[in-house]
Specification:
Layout: H1 2-22, H2 24-49, H3 54-86, H4 91-105, H5 116-119, H6 126-134, H7 137-157, H8 161-168, H9 171-213, H10 218-228, H11 234-251, H12 254-280, H13 288-302, H14 304-322, H15 328-333
Helix pairs in contact: 2-3, 2-7, 2-9, 2-14, 3-6, 3-7, 4-11, 8-9, 9-10, 9-12, 9-14, 10-11, 11-12, 13-14
Length: 335
């Protein structure tokens, strides 16, 4: 009987994964809307405390959210097209740089040309790949509108859960459940709000640093640093590597790229290891192996949006487990 239950559980999990993958076009905007709603609820509460009507407050928040993400999408698409147009011009610079690297590091004893395979790369072939990865801008706007529609209902419905709990349970049980829900809700809000704030600061600093170095697409790399901040460790590596590669292409020399690398590493280390833990008050202590598995799983399931929501979903699950006595063993396993 136990084996039957295990087998049924495996089948259910498999079918659930298939359904989530097939329903990606709806579930990705829904999950993003839920996360954004948690992150933006403090702003909604702030406006409500200052006597702003709830309908007006929700409308203002949604308009600003749409404008911000529309700007980000427009920036990514326009910068992507500009990058594709400029890629061929970097060909000679890259070859010159690789020849210099090969001259310095080439070893006759090993008889290995460490840059031979790089010289065979055709930057012009990267253009169609980048454009296909971006996809049509219309699909992005459609997805963004779907996120906003979900957020309308989620934000409008916030605050009604307590009334439903009071009607559904006895006074003592309702008080206990309401306190638990409120505590979990506040912890999730705090995590997402401060994570977003730190990401915004990192993105701004990256933009300023790259602009001071005179690199193109500084704002684009700043936006990417903000988004990749939701992916711990790996996100910082990618957010640092991409501008450094662009610096190699742009300057054609190793020294400026190393300076870019050094400054960006300092930014990410200070913000990630000093500022963020102080703001959060305490780290979530997620297992690096669990984080890596979660990134791979959600990337397989929903692609790049899945990688962005993977760790916040994991963090929210840990917060919920920590507040439920019967599930605290799962919290311990996640550390």
């Amino acid at each position: 009987m136990k084996l039957v239950r295990i087998g049924v559980g495996i089948i259910v999990v498999f079918l659930l994964g298939v359904v989530m993958k097939m329903a990606r076009s709806v579930l990705v905007p829904f999950f993003l809307a839920v996360l954004l709603s948690f992150a933006l609820t403090p702003a909604l509460d702030f406006l409500s405390r200052h006597k702003v009507p709830r309908v007006v407050a929700i409308t203002v928040i949604l308009i600003l959210t749409f404008a911000a993400f529309y700007f980000i999408g427009l920036l990514v698409y326009s910068s992507g097209k500009s990058l594709v147009a400029e890629l061929p011009s970097y060909g000679d610079v890259v070859k010159s740089f690789l020849n210099e690297v090969d001259r310095i590091f080439h070893s006759e004893k090993l008889n290995v040309d460490i840059t031979a395979w790089l010289k065979g790369l055709n930057l012009e072939k990267l253009g169609p790949f980048i454009l296909s990865s971006l996809g049509p801008f219309l699909s992005f706007v459609t997805g963004l509108l779907l996120v906003i529609v979900f957020m309308i209902f989620i934000l409008a419905g916030r605050g009604r859960m307590e009334k439903k709990i009071i009607r559904a349970f006895s006074p003592d049980e309702a008080a206990r459940i309401s306190g638990l829900v409120l505590r979990v809700d506040k912890q999730i809000q705090r995590y997402l709000a401060f994570k977003s704030l730190v990401g915004l600061i990192i993105g701004t600093l990256v933009t300023v640093v790259l602009a001071l170095f005179g690199l193109p697409f500084a704002v684009l790399f700043g936006v990417l640093a903000f988004l990749l901040n939701y992916i711990p460790n790996l996100g910082a590596v990618i957010a640092t590597a991409l501008p450094v590669i662009m610096a190699l292409f742009f300057f054609g020399r190793l020294a400026p790229a190393l300076w870019v690398l050094l400054v960006l590493m300092i930014v990410h280390l200070v913000m990630g290891d000093v500022v963020e833990p102080r703001l959060q008050g305490m780290g979530l202590g997620l297992s690096p192996l669990l984080v890596l598995f979660s990134l791979f799983f959600w990337a397989w399931l929903w692609g790049i949006p899945g990688m962005i929501v993977a760790v916040p979903i994991l963090a929210i699950a840990k917060i919920i487990f920590s507040n439920l006595t019967s599930l605290q063993f799962l919290e311990a396993l996640m550390e």
